[in-house]
Every structure is written in structure tokens, then in C-alpha cells.
Amino acid sequence: MALINQFTTQYGLVGKIDAFGYLDYLKANPDVSRKHGKVVLVTADTPLKASRGEGKTTTTIALIDALRARGIDAAAVLRQPSMGITAAGSKGGASGGGKASLTHPELVDWGLTGEMAAIENAQNLLVSFAEKAVDEGRIDTVLVPRVSEVPSRSLRQIVVDRGKGNVPERVVLTPTCEMMQIVVVSHSMDEIGQRVANMVAGTKNGVPVTFGSFIDLWRITGILKDAVKPAKTETVNGSPVYVHGGPFANVSLGIPTLVSVEMACALHDVVVVEAGYGADAGAQKWLDIASREFGAAWPAAAVVVTRASTWRDDPALSWRYPFHVNRLENLGIPTFPLINLWDGEDDQIDDLRKTAASLGFRSPIIGNLFRDGGKALEPQLDDFVAAFDASGMSAAGDADAVSENGSRDSHKGLGLVDDVRWIARNAYGVPSERMVIADGFESSLAAATQLCAGADVSIDDLAVVAVKSPATMTDDDTRPADERTVTLKKVEPHFGAGVVQVNLTTSLTTPMPKIV
Amino acid sequence: MALINQFTTQYGLVGKIDAFGYLDYLKANPDVSRKHGKVVLVTADTPLKASRGEGKTTTTIALIDALRARGIDAAAVLRQPSMGITAAGSKGGASGGGKASLTHPELVDWGLTGEMAAIENAQNLLVSFAEKAVDEGRIDTVLVPRVSEVPSRSLRQIVVDRGKGNVPERVVLTPTCEMMQIVVVSHSMDEIGQRVANMVAGTKNGVPVTFGSFIDLWRITGILKDAVKPAKTETVNGSPVYVHGGPFANVSLGIPTLVSVEMACALHDVVVVEAGYGADAGAQKWLDIASREFGAAWPAAAVVVTRASTWRDDPALSWRYPFHVNRLENLGIPTFPLINLWDGEDDQIDDLRKTAASLGFRSPIIGNLFRDGGKALEPQLDDFVAAFDASGMSAAGDADAVSENGSRDSHKGLGLVDDVRWIARNAYGVPSERMVIADGFESSLAAATQLCAGADVSIDDLAVVAVKSPATMTDDDTRPADERTVTLKKVEPHFGAGVVQVNLTTSLTTPMPKIV
């Protein structure tokens, strides 16, 4: 029996894997047979709107089906979609489509085995403990927001204890909460406990007070016992797919859990990681946060998905797709355009290839993945396979450093504003002189810096998480290149997760979409 | 292979059973082998406070272990404890203790397989749809409350859309919400859909508008797909235990799901159903709601649990235990006192037996169940087994009607206030003339009656759910018998669940206990 089966328990139609236990076992038993798979990112063009995906999950599924048909041991790691958003009809599920589907999309789209709900409960319980701490005089201000999986714009800003205390509070979506971030970056339950201990409950006379100073951490880790286990499912063609961690890389980490990717790399030769919405969100977070700051694998190759129409229909936005492809190439990552055709678009293939050539791209991979699944890709993958075979990148991240902009070094110590400048220049194409400091940003930064100092944390040691609209990279992507700006609006440190969120562009709110 | 295995899927350490499918199969195949088990209620004295249980779950577990040791095919049906309350430390778990424990109490106490969370999400999504209905002008007032599993008193009354709409809303605990009530009483997913369709979203110009008139019901039933399946676990001695449905019979139904009990009766000869807090809450709800109004089995016997100290230490409250035992006996249910000893109380057994005899009780069953488990009970069960063997009651409810007060007829049509009078007289010992109508009750009843009329429902056809403190049966249980009163405070119909809640006694709030 394969070793991993000893760490796997069936939960209905999905397997749940004790990834912490498996990775610990590998560490304690270095002679045990394991793989050192390479990570391939599937990311996308910036979508025209959040509800209109380009087909990243469909591509990821088709890609592993195609690679496995070629005899390569490939697997995918997906983020769990937000049931609240799907159930509300604000957005489709995220389980692929047509011939590029998971066997049980209804499981993945509709709450899996309760992972999101447990994370939501854990953070909400922390809020209850924080309220108790107010009653007991330990803190005078609660800083940790409540959490809801279900979208409801009216929950963004609430008042609790109506008619008595009338305390203003915030509610954020489950995938974006600090507890989700902690689950995404942690490598053990002990680390989760330590990170929860470092979360700021609130302040007392302006000085931050962390949960570790007054709660029983087992009450929180107890709730998370199953939520920390990646789920294993498969494509309709039997290719292995791991699902773990929350979506929404525009407003939070939005990447799969690091342990799910590390586990998959120990089990397979190629691990396709989905990173969206666009490359400016998902790929930026994978590269600049997961890899640089938390030791995740640097990608051996990347695929940037687009639809034929996205690439072409709005001339004012057509700069974005080549920008993403070129940025990743310039980081030394072999990057392949992938054009996900819809019905009636097959006759555009020649034109699309010409456009790609004129832009200096590698030869694009083109197919109707919904209709044809992995079979559409299989014959087109020679260059792609050769590229990641040739790459020295691996899960161990042991390749040479790449070019200046692409250095995989940590940005710790760079300084928060300089780090945002770096992101704006490299990921959004906006130079430093066109960064705009909004009213209130300086005071928000000063307050955050003071909060950090009070907790003996340097704000410059926290990984910067850009919070922005999924559909735009700058304040207005339709403006000419030399007029585009990025505005810094607000700063919010999450000590427990080890990140600091910086609100940019036109979306500064917590993500509670309108129900549709 | 046993038929039930075809309807069972393993979810980690517990089995999840498609009870709807199994019961449908039995109905469609009347010649298939099945049992017609009798229901035995385990209920208790009214607790001195909510956080101090008498030991119902411990007793239930010890009882089935003892019955099985005597060769009787017994099983238990428990309600899932509220993780929020347990994690907050407000109350212990509900998985027994010591030698009378479940094999995996941490599973049952800490969220099982996400059942509560799914029910919470389902009702919260309905609130989001109701808000959308406000935006669209379908309704002008939202009547369905939000739901939280995590206790937080400050959530009882909130304001959403702070700074803009400033809309007042309520939040109730998951176990007490209408969606939980619907799951508890329904026999199929179609019935759940129909009941959700009948839930009142809010009103438009005072006229109730139901969810069925504007939402896709599959969005809600999709969320509930696993939550409707009872979980199967076992005691440390291997006796089968089914867990399904929410607790808190003082403020809601607080009984296991009806399908979980029906399924257990098809599989076993004796099905021990836990019904608490005290007999005035859990047993009252089982008898007067589950059995009378929803067709559940009338109990073939009952056990009323108390501690030696509860029975004796507060003379002003010592009337309650005999009241409960005698009430159930007078309903024709053979009722056995069970005294759950704590360490150091073994020498009280003789005195306890004398007291029981002086009160005219059946011979009490006495043991330290934490220390000795079912072995403490096994030799004492001759009379108990003989009693339910002799009983004509069965899952089919085919016995003769019992005495006047004990008639198992529905109370539909009795009239809400008369029904509460009946409950107060029979379950709390307070005659009609000492019912107190609080200020505001009449207007609350009039508004509820009008709401019902607007929805073409007679309020008198809804099953009355008494909402009260778990620790008291009357406004002040320490007063002399002829001075005790019950106060009617507020009325809240739940059309979907088919019940109307009537707030009584000193507890009129939604149950958000203080976190401790």
C-alpha cells in the first residue's frame, strides 16, 4: 500500500489527507521513497469582471489529464471555491466544465467537508473571546473582524449589542479572513496555534493584546482538526486533484495551502497550481508571498489562460495579457499562452497564432477545453514539457537565482511603501512616480506601524498582500500606459498570518458581492 | 451485507446514513426485513442551571451498553451538541463521560461532519436573498433572523449596513433556527424544499412573502445535502449511537431528527432517545410536538435522570423531580427514576431508595455511571425491560389511547393560548388561572395571527413550541405551589417548520449565552 494511504481517510466521496503528518513523516524518514515534483502555475489574464472566469480550473484539469495521457505523473492543486458566492449565484463554481471537470463538482462547489465553515467558526469564536476580554477589561477595542461565508453587502459594516453597547464591527468573507491565511501558510497544528496566539485581539490603551495572552488555544485548533486536511478528488479521467485553501487572491492570499502543494510535490512529478483571478492577483501572490516569503516552490513553468475574446475585444485593455506573459517570462519562468476557445471560435486559431507570434510569445496552446478536455491539449504540449523538464526549479527551490526583477529573495526589510512600489512596477506596470497616496493612507500606515511596534513586530517584516479589484491592476486600466496610477489607501496588519494588507486601486472594501 | 450499509458512507470515523433513502426503500419494499423498535425516552430533572447537566447522555450510553449486555438490540439517538457553546466553554460536550462514553467524543462535540455549519449557512443565505428582495422591492421588512453557531450575546440584536441603511436585525443560535427545525421534522429533501418555500422572508405592506415565491430552492437544499444524513458512531463498548439534530429543547424543538429515530426503530428493538434539558423541555417537546403533531413514536418507557444532590439539596425545588416522574407515569408511560451518583455518594443508595419508595416511585435505578458505565445498570433493569416489553407502544404508535391528559391526539385547532394553558397545567403544574399575560403579548399574538392569515395559515394549526429558561418551569419555581405563575410574553410563528414559538417564564431572549 502506498505510504500516503496511511495518512488518508475517506470522507464520503473525497479523501482527506493528514498532510501535516505525511510531511512530518517524510522529514523524519529521509530515505523513504518520495518525489520532488515541479510546480507549474496556471494563471490568467485579468478578467473583465470577477464573475467571468477565463477558464483556469477547466485548463488546470485539462492540462493534468493531457500530461497524464502523455505518461507524466501530474496532479493539480485547486483552491476550494466559496460556497456562499456559488450558492448565491454571484459566480459559477470552480470545478471545471464539460470534459474538463471533476467527478463530483457538487462536492467541491458546495462546502466540501466543512473546511470553510470550520475556519469561519474558529475566527468567530475568537471574536467572542475578544468580546469577553472587553468585559473583563483586558482590551478596550476589538480589532479582529467577524467572518461570514455567505455574501451580504449589508454585513460589511455592522453594529452589535444594538440598544446597549452599540459597538461598530466589521464582517469579512471566510476566504479572506486571517484564520484562512493562517491555515494557508502553516505547516503544523503547532504553528497554527502559535500564529493564532500572535493574532491581535484588540488594544488596551492603544497597545495591542494578542489572543495568546488570554485564551486556551486548543479551543481553536480543536475546531480546525479536519479543516487542515487537504481533500483529494479526481477529474472525470481519473487524474488526482487536491483541494485546499480559500480563493480570492485579489483581496487575500487566495492560494492553495502550502502544505497541499508540498504534499503533492512529494507524490507527483508535476504539480499544477491554480493561481487567479489574473496573473496580477494569483501569480503575484504565489511568487511574491508564497515563494519569496514562505518558502514555496518557484514555478518551473507557467500557463496564462485567456479567452479569444478577452484578448481582443477591448483595445484599451489588450495591453494586459502580453504584460502578464512577458512579466513571467522575464522572471525566468517559461510561460505559455493558453487560449480557451468557446463554441464557434475554432476558425480563429490561425489568427490567434499570428497575433501570438507578433507579440513574441512562445507558441500558444489553443483548444476548446469544455468540449474536448485534455485531448485538445495533448498534442500541443511538446514545448511545454520540454520547458519544465529543462527547468532547474523544483519543490526544493534549488535553482539559481534569476534576473534582477525576478530575484526570489524575500522582500522583508524593504519597507512597506517600497514593497508596494516594487509590486506596482513589476506586477502592474506602474512606476513609482505614479503611485498616489490617498488621504488617510499615511495615518493608517502610522497607526499600523505603531500597532506593530506595540507587539514587538516590525511592519517591514510582514509580507505585503495587495488588496484590490480582481478586474483591474491600476486605478483605471483603460488609460494610456503613461497615465496609469496605483493608489495606496489603507493598511491592515495580520500578525498571526505574518502579512500586512494594503488596499489599492478602486476596490477598498471587504469582498461582499451583491447577491445575484 | 446488511441493507443499511448500502445507505451508509464513511466520513472519517463516523458513518453518514442516507436515512431518507433507507426509509423510502422500506416503504417501497414492505416485505424487506426490518424491525419495529420501541422508543424509550431518557429525560431528566430540571437542571439547577443550564451548564450543569444531570447526566442524560452518560445515562443514555450506559443504558444501551447495559441492554445490549443483556442481549437486547438497543441503540441510542442523540442530538448533536452545539460546538460553539462547547468550544466557548459555556457548557461541556455531550458525549457521555468515563466508562459511559462515545469512542470519539471529540468528533461529536467539535462539529461532527459540518451539519450545524451547513444549516447555519443555509439560513444565512436565505437572509441574503431576503435582503436582495428588499432591494428589488419584493418585501419591505426582513423577518428571518441570521444564524450563528458561535455564542455571542452582543449578536442578539445587531444593525447591518451601518452608516447607510442602518437596518436592525436579529441573530439566533444555529440549533434554534427555523432551518434546524425544518431538518428535524422533515422526511425527505422534497419536504425540506417545500418547508423552505413556506418560510416567511418578510412582509410587503404588512403581507407576508414566502421564499418559495422568489428563490431557487435548490440553492438551499444543495447546501444541506450531507447535513440531512444522521451520523453513526458507537459507545466505547461498541453499542450503536446515531447523532442528528440540534439541542436546546428549552428554546426550540431540541429533539433528534424524526428520521434518525424512525431509522433507528427500523434497525433495532429498543431505541433510547435523549430528550432534555429537563422533562419540562425535552420530554414535553417529544410528547407534545414530535409525537402528537409530527407522528413520532410515543415512548414505551421513560427514564428520568437526576443527581442525588439535585433531588435533595434545595427543598424549594424538590417538588420538580417527583412532578416529572409522576407526569410521565400519568401519561401511561412506565417511568423509572435513575440516580446518577458522583464519587463519594455510594453510601447514599439506601436513603435514595427509601425516598423513592416514600414518593410512590417505581424502584429507582442507581449507579455511578461515569465510574462503572453500563455494568452499574445491567443487574437493575429487570423491571425496566419488563415494562417496555409489556408496552403496546411501538414505532407505529398503534397502542390504545391513554388517559384524558395523556391523549396522544394532536392539539391542532385548540387555540394558541389554550394550548399554552394545557402545557402549563400538564408539564409545569400551573393552572389556567395563574397564567399571566405580559404587556405586549396580546399585540404580539395579534400581529402573528394577522401574519398567519396573510399567508393563508391558521395560527392554531401550528405546533406550539414553549421558549423558556432551561432551569425553570415557572416564573419562579421556588415559590409555593399555589403561587407559581407562567407568563406569556411573545409569539413568533415559523410557517416553514409548522410551529409557533411562545416565549414564557423569565427567559425571553434568543439563546446567546455568555462566553466563559
TrEMBL record, chains A, B:
GO terms for molecular function: ATP binding; formate-tetrahydrofolate ligase activity. GO terms for biological process: tetrahydrofolate interconversion. Its EC number is 6.3.4.3. Pathway: One-carbon metabolism; tetrahydrofolate interconversion. SUPFAM superfamilies: P-loop containing nucleoside triphosphate hydrolases. Keywords: ATP-binding, Ligase, Nucleotide-binding, One-carbon metabolism. This is formate--tetrahydrofolate ligase. It comes from Bifidobacterium bohemicum DSM 22767.
